[in-house]
Amino acid sequence: MSAPAPTDLWLERSRFNGILLDGVSYGILFVLTVQCVHALFQRPKHKLVKAQTRSRWLLLAYIAATFALATIGVAANAKYSQMIWIDLRNSPQGPEGLIINELGFWENRMALTSYYIMSWLMDMLLIHRCFVIWNWHILVVLLMSSLLLANIIMAILTLVSSSHGAVFTSIGFQLAFLIISVSTNFIYTILVAGRLLVLRKQITLALGEEHAKVYVSVAAMVVESSALYTVFGIIYVVTYALHSNVENLIFLWIIHVQGIAQLLIILRIAQGSAITEDVTARQSTHLQFAHSQATPDVSTHHHAHLSITNGSSSAPAGPPGLGSEVKEEKSVVYTGTSESQSQPAGEV
Question: What does the pLDDT read at residue 306?
């Protein structure tokens, strides 16, 4: 009786442990999905205007779509894992060959496709939030849109290559896709956090530190959530480029990490723990500061005019929140001397 062919046990172990981590991350994604849906439905309807209600349903549709895609991917991965060690265990390829040539089976191509579409949806949500905060600045729109388009192209080219029997770890388009995906999240973090901190400084100068705290909270939330995916993304890119078996420990569930990061943002917004109800209700706000000096015969007072106009085309004063728009306008005027500022005439 001939001796069995040598096998790469580390390859098999990494794949097996990867599918276990895939189940764990999917469980976390499921819990957060339920919490987000519950939190969005808990928002009192009588306090929501039409635009906010529409935004809430769009978020619910986004959550349902991403969870459905994640479920398809997990189911396909679980099915193929069963094929590796049970259904096809005695095939000429053996478990090692089945892992290496995984794209030769439709189950894996379906899982890969669902994860790509899920990634596109999540990137679209991030990019839209970035556009809103930067008030659709042309340079930001061009940069982020180019990254999204390049991401989609690389994913499609990877799927085309996989249909021709290419080995997944040898597809250069997949490496490009990973680099672009991680870069998109990193650039988003820099743009959004930087913009919010600039707005915080402007609000601090006009209204004081107390009114600007929300911007620090939101900026920290963005950085923390994005870092969750960026760290694992960098590790995955390095291991994939080096053709290390460690990539099997990350590949099957890294898309869930990106989904978890975004669900954490949605959950905090829906619960109001990161953004107050007043700020959440204002997606596109207009913040203008016009300092002028009165005539000498009246006084030497300095006037600061704060105009908050929802749905404006100027730079937003608040974070996008739920992406809602409120069709109302508030104008508050603060008047004070050059040495001290008087009490506000009204509350924002």
Answer: 37
Phi, psi for 291 (deg, rounded to 5): -100, 125
Q: Please give the Cα distance from 279 to 243 (Å, whole number).
A: 47
Which residues does residue 147 pair with via DSSP β-bridges, in sequence order?
none
Question: Which residues of the chain fall short of a pLDDT of 70?
Answer: 1-7, 43-51, 214-215, 219, 221, 223-225, 272-348
- Which residue, among 263, 134, 268, 274, has the nearest Cα to 194 in the 3D structure? 134
Q: What is the pLDDT of residue 254?
A: 92
Per the CB < 8 A criterion, the answer to whether 105 and 162 are in contact is: no
Coil vs helix vs strand at 192:
helix
Q: Are strands 302-309 and 287-293 parallel, antiparallel or unpaired?
A: antiparallel
In sequence order, what are the residues at sequence separation of 6 or more whose Cβ sits closer than 8 angstroms to the Cβ of residue 3? none
In this structure, the strands spanning 302-309 and 329-336 are antiparallel
Q: Tell me how far apart the alpha carbons of residues 143 and 148 are, in angstroms, rounded to a whole number.
A: 9
SS3 331: strand
At 201 the three-state DSSP class reads: helix
Closest by Cα among 202, 189, 173 to 229: 189
Burial annotation 265-278 (CB, 10 A radius, 16+ → b, else e): bbbbbbbeebbeee
- Crossing angle of the two packed helices 50-82 and 9-42, in degrees rounded to 10: 160
Please give the radius of gyration of the chain, using alpha carbons only, rounded to the nearest integer. Answer: 25
d(CA 226, CA 215): 16
What span, in angstroms and rounded, lies between the C-alpha atoms of 294 and 159? 67
Most distant CA atoms of the chain, gap in Å: 110
| Residue 50 pLDDT | 65
**pLDDT, the chain, mean:** 76
What does DSSP assign to residue 43?
S
Q: Which of 142, 182, 200, 185 is nearest to 319 (CA)?
A: 200
Angle at 72 between CA 75 and CA 181, to 5 degrees: 115
Q: How far is 21 from 29, CA to CA, in rounded Å?
A: 12
Structure tokens at 176: 């490009």
